[in-house]
Design a protein that fits this description.
The chain is mostly helical and 292 residues long. Helix content is 80%, strand content 1%.
């Protein structure tokens, strides 16, 4: 559409999500009774997550205005490895050697599947790298906050609390960098501009809720792997439906194979990982026998 205002778009996504969820969060007793407790205990973590989330999405959206999608996805395919490294420090979760190997192979598989020879701007690469690092931090920190001192927070709460902070952080940059571009687009193509914003806002609400719910259900690393598998699935299915598989290279087939197999092996390793056995209570008969 030629609508180049990623900061305005991302800021709109953030505040729209909170506004859309506000009736649920304010009128339902389960949520409204916990606002004070959540903000008192977890406001620092929520503020960091909101800032990271807002800037990583803005950087990613901005990178796509100056570089090809394929290179963007090649860089972002490393997110599972980064999240696993950060989870060691933030969530105190140490992956096994087998899991580390699977994560590396998954990232390599996605890189092979999506890579296309193209010219890419240095600015786009820098923005994508920054977005990748910030999303990795945000996902790992979200995994910790969602099981924090206020009890388990769900995806609706995370979206509701982080939206206004992300909006406040992003809006000054959006006004400085994109004020003229946005209002020029609004004046020349009001229907397309408003329609694009509203449509993308609705999609963004669903995306943020699903992302936070995945972090809560699957863990931060599992969510990052799911994101990589999603990229390869979309690429393969779109090529299959459009009849473009005949033009695929051997590297692309290899990349899909590595991604799916490694994701399956990682899931198997997590499912079969030995868990610490609960401590068995002492037998009263044993205690009485020892006392006599």
């Amino acid at each position: 559409f030629g609508l180049k205002f990623p900061l305005v778009m991302t800021a709109s996504h953030m505040i729209f999500g909170s506004t859309a969820l506000s009736p649920l969060m304010l009128m339902r007793e389960h949520y409204s009774s916990r606002h004070a407790l959540v903000l008192q205990n977890d406001w620092k973590g929520l503020a960091i997550i909101a800032t990271m989330n807002g800037f990583q999405i803005a950087c990613n959206n901005a990178s796509l205005t100056v570089m090809e999608l394929s290179m963007n996805q090649v860089i972002r395919s490393s997110i599972p490895v980064l999240v696993a490294v950060l989870a060691i420090c933030i969530e105190a979760k140490i992956p096994s050697k087998g899991e580390i190997v699977c994560l590396i192979v998954i990232s390599i598989g996605v890189m092979l599947a999506v890579w296309e020879e193209s010219r890419n701007a240095l600015l786009g690469i820098i923005l994508t790298l920054a977005s990748t690092v910030m999303q990795s931090i945000q996902m790992s920190l979200s995994g910790r906050i969602m099981s924090g001192r206020s009890g388990k927070l769900d995806s609706f709460q995370m979206t509701f609390y982080t939206g206004p902070v992300a909006f406040i952080v992003l809006m000054p940059f959006a006004l400085v960098a994109e004020f003229n571009i946005f209002f020029e687009s609004l004046a020349l193509r009001p229907t397309a501009t408003i329609g694009f914003l509203l449509g993308s806002c609705c999609v963004a609400v669903v995306y943020n809720v699903v992302l936070f719910q995945s972090v809560r259900t699957l863990s931060s690393v599992g969510t990052a792997i799911l994101g990589n598998v999603k990229i390869v699935c979309l690429l393969f299915l779109s090529s299959l439906l459009l009849g473009e598989l005949s033009s695929w290279s051997a590297n692309q087939y290899l990349g899909c194979f590595l991604t799916f197999i490694s994701a399956g092996v990682y899931s198997y390793l997590k499912a079969t990982a030995s868990k610490p056995q609960p401590l068995m209570p002492a037998d009263p008969a044993t205690k009485s026998g020892a006392g006599s």
